[in-house]
Amino acid sequence: MRRQKKFYAWGYADEDLTPEEIRPWEAEIAQRYGLSGFDVKAPPRADEIVLRKSRVDVPSALQAMVRTDHLTRLEHSYGKAGFDTLRMFMRSVPNPPDAVAFPESEEDIVKVLDWCDRIGAKAIPYGGGSSVVKGIEPSAAFDKVVTISTRHMDKVLEVDPVSHAARIQGGIYGPAIEDALRNTPFTMRHYMQAYRCSTLGGWIATRSGGHYATLYTHIDDFVESTRVVTPEGTLETRRLPGSGAGPSPDRMFIGSEGILGIITEAWVRLRKKPTFRASASVRFRDFHAGADAVRDITQAGLYPANCRLLEAREALPGIPWDNEEAVLVLAFESPDHPLDAWMKRALEICAAHGGVADESDDDENAHRSGAAGAWRNKFIRAPHYGEHAVARGILSSTFETSMTWERTRDFQTKITKIARDTIKAVTGREGTVTCRFTHVYPDGPCLYFTFGGVFDPKKDALAQFMEVLSTCTAATVEHGGTTTHHHAVGRFHRPFYDRQRPELFARALRGAKRELDPKGMMNPGVLIDP
Ligand SMILES: Cc1cc2nc3c(=O)[nH]c(=O)nc-3n(C[C@H](O)[C@H](O)[C@H](O)COP(=O)(O)OP(=O)(O)OC[C@H]3O[C@@H](n4cnc5c(N)ncnc54)[C@H](O)[C@@H]3O)c2cc1C
């Protein structure tokens, strides 16, 4: 039987944080924001949320694969951002899809798209529903909307052991890919944070950023070819290790966010499972010293698999909030050779910037112990805290961007100040803002900001949430960054993306959409307007 996901928050319905996890977190939050206790709201039950009646009649030929029941429509109404969970806690879902289709083949998808065309419905491709940018959320402007879930198209179809690649269906979740590869020497290793509940098709459609902090940062680097069903027909690109034949058709679909068609399959590049690992964590007196070391490591051509620079108070338990230290979680991995020389050189670079390596991190399993292990556990469990923050009236969210090194320090300082000032202005109290580098390049880092605060109980919580997040995101674009490094554009980032991308490019994209989707039925409002 299919494991039921929580309709209102991250994760599965049968899992939650333990009291041992909640208690110290609650105490830390209370201390951080000067609170004496919490009024904890209960999570919503599905029957507490009223949905508008479905506006479509499903034809008998499609009834086996299209559902209109309450829970299915509710589950497919929002993604998994903090503001989605908050709206679920407010029991507010004004624009659910009218129906959700579960095709099992490309022929099924064609039938569903034909039906949408006949009844004038908009179609929203849906993978794992982990979007944090309103990518799968129906707009109030749609007369009818059918969400198309790829969840039954979930197989690894073929493995090419010579070229190290696999043909995989778009609706497969991350863990199922690695399960299918278990008896092979290969791994895909695209361990992004939502890996458990997101799909290959979703990763490609959103240009997801994964496990590797350098070199193969985005899904782009894994995709060898794609197969896409569009309203105008199906197309498949040629499997090639590289090609200079004009603009790449794969690149057009990577990041297309469901506006051109449904990615049903892709050939993706695999790697041999790593058998050699070297891990370390290095402490710096402050974030800027760590940033200088990270820049030198990437520019030395060392390319570690993991190179995440974090504020120590965010990464490690028990660090006081006024501590300015930073910690670098560093790892090299290879299926072929020992990595001591790489690690030795990286640590020399760190030492030159005052970095002190943690001595407990000198064994093969260091990535699971010490500072690296503490951060790894936090990274895996962090998404579960979102609903508990909402239940306690705590504002908490993230935004991410990138910047070239020569402007990084100034940019980070400005954005941090804007975020702090905005939280204070909106909620009336001091908040917290931290920054980490999740992916790093020779010419600059991805800056990933996490902010927190306490909602003003006298004001609308959703309005406060959106004002803080929008002001911070707008600031990243205004000061020269990107509206998103790997969270996609969706409907939430659209106004900021509009300011960032050249208008002539928007016209070219609109032209491509008109050719593939002449009636504008695929996920309108995302990326461009028709
Ligand atoms: C806790 C958490 C952590 C996250 N961490 C990361 C992270 O580390 N890195 C990262 O990149 N993102 C992260 N995200 C964001 C999100 O997981 C990614 O955007 C992910 O790639 C979405 O995949 P999905 O299958 O859930 O797609 P969905 O959320 O279902 O859809 C996302 C978009 O892709 C389109 N789409 C989905 N499937 C297809 C398809 N087969 N064909 C065409 N279009 C399609 C949808 O229409 C929508 O526009 C995180 C989200 C959460 C909630």
From TrEMBL:
Domain FAD-binding PCMH-type: 93-273
Origin superkingdom: Bacteria
Keywords, ordered alphabetically: FAD, Flavoprotein
Pfam families for this protein: FAD-oxidase_C (PF02913), FAD_binding_4 (PF01565)
Cited PROSITE patterns: FAD_PCMH (PS51387)
Keyword Nucleotide-binding in record: no
Flavoprotein as UniProt keyword: yes
Entry-linked InterPro entries: Alkyl-DHAP_Synthase, FAD-bd_oxidored_4_C, FAD-bd_PCMH, Oxid_FAD_bind_N
PANTHER family recorded: ALKYLDIHYDROXYACETONEPHOSPHATE SYNTHASE, PEROXISOMAL
Record's protein name: FAD-binding oxidoreductase
Organism (species): Reyranella humidisoli
